[in-house]
Design goal:
two-stranded antiparallel sheet; 59% helix; 5% strand
Length: 198
């Protein structure tokens, strides 16, 4: 019986030249791909908004009731929010100067096509975001943590099972600058809505 020797894979370190070369290649900005992503996002917006408006105009000729405008509008709002999230992702790349190779084009496209539709600016987002990278997870100096704490959205980590999914009689608690504030759970809202409907 022949024996087969098992070879252990060679462990690569972070200083490996081949790994560094691969990372450098992946870090390069690709203008055409990012133009494609931007165009795709705006085509998505045109499709969502266009279909919603078309539904408003054609609903009556299809014999559908007026109340169907409400769920169609809610779905459109959710889909537009997803598109805005795509724009914020592109803006994030621009904040790091990697959306386009040319910095002027990077900032121009980011302002007009990514941040202004979100009612913001690249400059202000860059100031806040780069400060976050400078002090990541520092409870005093990270602006993201500070913003979450002052708005009441800061939750301790890790969350307990009860805080993550409260039961029908429990309330979800949020930590806000050292104090506790409770908000109703989805179950409480559902039971309130059922009682109100009756």
């Amino acid at each position: 019986m022949s024996s087969v020797s098992l070879l252990t894979p060679k462990q690569k370190s972070l200083s490996d030249p081949e790994l560094k070369e691969t990372l450098q290649r992946l870090r390069q900005s690709d203008n055409w791909t990012n133009f494609y992503y931007l165009l795709r996002t705006y085509l998505y917006f045109a499709l969502v908004i266009g279909c919603t408006i078309a539904f408003y105009y054609l609903r009556e000729s299809w014999g559908l009731p007026f109340w169907l405008n409400v769920p169609v509008t809610i779905i459109a709002i959710i889909l537009v929010g997803a598109g805005q999230h795509q724009l914020s992702g592109l803006a994030h790349e621009a904040v790091h100067h990697i959306l386009f190779r040319n910095r002027y084009l990077n900032d121009l496209v980011s302002e007009w096509f990514c941040m202004y539709p979100l009612y913001s600016s690249t400059h202000h987002y860059r100031l806040q975001h780069l400060a976050h990278h400078q002090f990541v997870n520092d409870p005093v100096r990270d602006p993201d943590i500070s913003q979450l704490q002052t708005s009441g959205h800061w939750l301790p980590f890790p969350l307990s099972r009860k805080a993550f999914a409260p039961g029908p009689t429990k309330t979800r608690t949020c930590v806000r600058a050292g104090s506790r504030r409770s908000s109703p759970s989805a179950w409480q809202f559902f039971t309130f809505w059922r009682k109100w409907r009756r």
